[in-house]
Write a structure and sequence with these properties.
Number of domains: 1
Number of helices: 7
Helix content: 25-40%
Strand order of the largest sheet: 2-1-6-7-8
CATH architecture: 3-Layer(aba) Sandwich
Order of helices and strands: HEHEEEEHHEHEHEH
CATH class: Alpha Beta
Shape: globular
CATH topology: Rossmann fold
Low-confidence stretches: 222-229
Largest sheet: 5 strands, parallel
Mean pLDDT: 91
Radius of gyration: 17 Å
Number of strands: 8
Strand content: 15-25%
Length: 229
């Protein structure tokens, strides 16, 4: 278990989050959605602990052209629905015009579609209607990508939307909490400056790890298209 507000790695973070989600264990209506790529190792542990199926929810940050790590928004896609969340304050402060926003959107949308095809390998997205959906990432900085993910999931008419993360900035935690049924977070450091600050190992997650996790889940589920309850 993590000590002094830190995680050794994403797997340990997943274990910590799992302890907050015992209410959702062994329930047939629960599905865990990971935000690739960083959320996948966290979500794998959670799905195993809850004995719930795992899928991915495709989401991409819309970064500023000169500072791609700064989110001016995000896009998410699930079940054919694409949702866009804009960070108007960042766009206005950076002086980004609409044409530039559209250019970034086009690039990120192409990458989102590439990943969707690569990760799923022809498997359909898991049905969400009427289910309790737990959305997982390795942390929230601005919360823009998670808010886009929540909006996309809501269009699928789930029974309940739950967000579970190891760490979040206080502002992101407040924003996301207001948009979901339940929000679970292990750490909300007041001196937050980056998700990676609470991880000893925050190495990038590669495509092959995501593909392997989804293959393993598909192998464990003999009928991934079972009709939702």
């Amino acid at each position: 278990m993590f000590e002094q507000g830190r995680f050794a790695h994403r797997t340990e973070a997943g274990r910590a989050v799992s302890q907050l989600l015992s209410l959702y264990a062994h329930r047939e209506d629960v599905v865990v959605l990971a935000l690739p790529r960083g959320g996948v190792p966290v979500a794998v542990v959670i799905a195993q602990a809850l004995e719930a199926p795992l899928d991915v929810l495709m989401v991409r940050k819309l970064g500023l052209p000169q500072q791609p790590e700064v989110a001016m928004g995000a896009i998410a896609s699930v079940g054919g629905t694409v949702e866009v969340v804009r960070n108007t304050a960042v766009i206005e402060q950076a002086g980004v015009d609409e044409a530039t926003v559209d250019e970034v959107y086009a690039v990120e949308m192409a990458e989102l579609r590439r990943r969707d095809s690569k990760y799923r390998e022809g498997r359909p997205a898991m049905p969400l209607r009427g289910r309790t959906v737990i959305i997982v990432d390795d942390g929230l900085a601005t919360g823009a990508t998670m808010r886009a993910a929540v909006a996309a999931v809501r269009h699928q008419e789930p029974a309940q939307i739950v967000v579970a993360v190891p760490v979040a900035s206080p502002s992101a935690a407040e924003a996301v909490t207001a948009e979901v049924d339940e929000f679970f977070c292990v750490l909300t450091p007041e001196g937050f400056y980056a998700v990676g600050q609470v991880y000893d190992d925050f190495s990038p997650v590669v495509d092959s790890e995501v593909v392997a996790a989804l293959r393993a889940n598909a192998d464990d589920d003999p009928d991934p298209e079972v009709s939702q309850p």
